[in-house]
Amino acid sequence: MIYRVQLFRGLKDPYIIGHQLTKAEKIEGTWKYTIILTFASFLLYSISAYLGIGSDILSKQIYQLTSADFEATKLLFAIGQVLAGVLGTILFIFFPALVFWLFSDTYYMKLVNIQLIITTIILLEKAISIPFQYYLGLDPMSLPYSLGVIAQYFTDYRYIILVLAQITFFQIWVIVLQYTYVKAVMDRSKSVVLAIVISTNVCIWLVLALFSYIDFEKLL
């Protein structure tokens, strides 16, 4: 059986696509859609950087640098944002798939194709966050669909808030779909699959929160 990558149907019909992936003897379109998603990531992070989202940490530099140096710093920071976003997207496609593969005996590229579907959700979340951050001036900890908003009422510890801010409606969707797909292709019990999926995502949240927690302003 030949499986052809279907990103949006994969979001809508996970049981059907999961069955197709399980039975697939040949997969077509993996690298094509990897490139498409990477380019989509590049566009989204370029738009975000162009709008100045996340560049508020440079504000104190405006009084310490000449106009030309400040603009050069802003440009380098924007380039760094785009590169980090694109690299993060590529890692999100291949790294969780590698973790799942270590606990299974299935074909690695089947797991990569699962991550292609999941990455579509991540990019959708990024696209939706841009208007909230640009027009409403919300930071990642205050997006209305994350637990970061609630966390700010219970603690002042920034790292905990940043970790909980990673838990959004979209991330819950990610876990549900990953569990559905990985369970379909992995010969493990439901509890083991769920533990692997949740542990992998929690590790990702902790790392992303750590990068957000680092005071890059002091490094500039």
Q: Can you give a write-up of this model?
A:
With 220 residues, the protein is mainly alpha-helical. The protein contains nine helices and two strands; from the N terminus they run E-H-H-E-H-H-H-H-H-H-H. It has one domain (2-219). It has a two-stranded parallel sheet with strand order 1-2. Helix 5 (108-135) packs antiparallel against helix 8 (169-185) and helix 8 packs antiparallel against helix 9. It is globular, with a radius of gyration of 19 Å. The mean pLDDT is 90.
What keywords describe this structure?
about 220 residues; mainly alpha; two-stranded parallel sheet; globular; single chain; 9 helices; 2 strands
Mass-distribution shape: globular
Mean pLDDT level: 90
- Class derived from helix and strand content: mainly alpha
- Point out poorly predicted stretches: none
Give the N-to-C terminal Cα separation: 54 Å
Oligomer: single chain
Approximate helicity band: over 70%
How would you characterize the largest beta sheet? Answer: 2 strands, parallel
The number of E-state strands comes to: 2
Question: DSSP helix count?
Answer: 9
Q: What is the N-to-C succession of helices and strands?
A: EHHEHHHHHHH
Structurally, how many domains make up the residues?
Answer: 1
Strand order of the largest sheet: 1-2
| Radius of gyration of CA atoms, rounded to a whole number | 19 Å
Q: What fraction of the residues are assigned to beta strands by DSSP?
A: under 5%
